[in-house]
Each structure stands twice: as structure tokens, then as C-alpha cells.
Amino acid sequence: MSRLFAPLGACVLLACAPVAGEGDAAAAGGDASLAGQALFVANKRGNSVMKIDLLTGRELARIASCANPHELATSPDGAHVALACYGGTSVDIFETADLRLMRSIELGTNARPHGIVWHANGDFYVTAEGRESLFWVRKPVDAPEAFEFSTGQRGSHMIAVSPDARHAWTMDLGSGTVTLVDLQTRRAPRSVAVGVEPEGIALSPDGKALWVSARGSDKAIELDPMTLDVRSEAATGDFPLRLAIRPQGDVAVTSNLADGSLSVIELATARVIRTIAVSSREEAQARAQVTILWSADGKRIYVAETGTDTIAEVDYASGKVRRRLIAGEGGDGLAILP
What we know:
The chain is mainly beta. The protein has helices spanning 25-29, 281-287; strands at 38-43, 48-53, 59-64, 69-74, 80-85, 90-95, 101-106, 113-118, 124-128, 133-138, 145-150, 156-161, 167-172, 177-182, 190-193, 198-203, 210-214, 219-223, 230-235, 240-245, 251-256, 261-266, 271-277, 289-294, 300-305, 310-315, 321-326, 331-336. This is YncE family protein.
């Protein structure tokens, strides 16, 4: 049976906001390896985007954005961050230094862009849920050129892109499918139904395994990227909304909304090897954890708790919540400065 959960202002550069504490939060963040690193957060209820210094946990900037912003992606050179305007029709690009809006790229009527990947090739790829399509945007900073590819599926929500940028995969919420799109030949897309209410999607760094999380069936499912055949399944925690693969390619984690946990899946064996409690089951619905993001070194997991406007920073080795950072209202989409 499907489980339903409640859906999860303009300002200028702000004075530093305090860190939401679990013990001495500022001290917890004082790891020299975090110097110069920043976390960007899309606040979907607050209609804003913000930048947090990861060394100190302090808010550096917050600006008004488009309505209902969702996913974020940073450029390979770290100079820009792209914001998918889920309540509108554009992808907006900001300077990472000060969050100055430098460009807005329109995708057309009813686009509702959501999932976004800024590829190592310098282009970005974004779903347009309202158009049942995805867009490949070439040279987004200097001379944007957008190419649309139909998925033919309802609610194309999240996206993954191959290392060579020849293929993309969407997770289609409305249709309950995964769709493979050929970005080079424009062959007809191929879609298959996967699990119950699939939503999360991630491709292994080597491009050889596609993983999805099916929130209605409490499973993570491995697919062959090109045939979309199911290879293996792993039982996760309750309501695995999102899935993210560690940059080192050894494990994936699912964000389990209903019980406040992360399920850690060993990719080589397709087996859950650990469960990390970010919050208790009793706290889970209030916290409403959604988006998860790995640090580049694979040592930390950032978990957006959209109900309490916080971002939990989890130490992967110990499984402990090191601190909670204050986000804006409905902080959801996350991106990190590479």
C-alpha cells in the first residue's frame, strides 16, 4: 500500500546565522579539510538559495530565487551553481562567490525543471517534468544552447547521465518508470516499470550499474544501464525517497523518509551492510529528510531535513550526526563546491 506524506522571501547578504547545535556544533565543524568548501541549499518553501561555509557552519549569503526551487548543481570549475526552478520554466545560474544571478535559461511553457546534472564536459542536463522531457544545455555560462529530448513519461523527475554524456536516464514519478534517452542518435526513448513508486536514481561512477530507489516497495534496485534489466534488489529502510552513490563507487545510500535512516548498500554484493540513524522513527515525519549528498572525499553525507529546515552532516565512518546546519524554509536541493 502506498504511504502518503505531507509535501515537504527576498533578502541580501546576511549576517552569519548560528549553527543548529548538537553539542558544540561549531567545534564539530572545525575540520581543516573543510576549509574553502561551501554547501548550497535550495529552500523550496522560502523561495531562496543560500550558501553555507562548511568549515564554520555559518551562512554566508542568501538571496531570493524563483518559486519553489528544487535541485542544484555546481559547475565543474566551481565558479557557478545552477538552480532548477520547479515552480517555473527556467534554470537560473548564480556565481558561487556571492550568489549573484548571472543568467536565466528558459526551457519553455510548463517546463517545471527538477533533476539536474552539471556534467564534467561543462554542459548540464535537466528534467522538464511538465513537458515529459529532458534538456541538454550546451555552454550554459557563455552561450547557452538547449536541446530537448522527449521521455514520453509522466513526471520525469530525477536524472543521471553517463560519464561519456552519450546517454541519460530519468526517473518518472507519474509513470513509475525509468527511461533511457540516447543523447547522440535521438533514437526513441526506452522505458521500463521498476518497483513501486520509484524516485531516486544514480549511476555508478564507471557507468556500469544504474541504481534506483523504489519508495513504495522499500527497495534499492540495480539495473543494467543499457538493457534496463533488473540485476539485483536490496531491502532498505522505510520509504527510500532518494539514492546517492559514494564518489568512490563502493556503496550507495538511500534516504529513508519514514524511519529517519540511511541504508548503506555495498554495490559489489547488492547487500545492505549498515543502517545509519539520522533521526529516530518518532522524529522522522517532523524532520522529513529528502535530498542526500556525499562530500567529494566520501567522508560525509549531507541530509536535507525539509521539515525542520536543517541539514544533518553525517560522518560516514562512525555513522554519527556531527552537527545540524540551519537551512532556509524547506531546505531541500543540495550542491557542494567541488
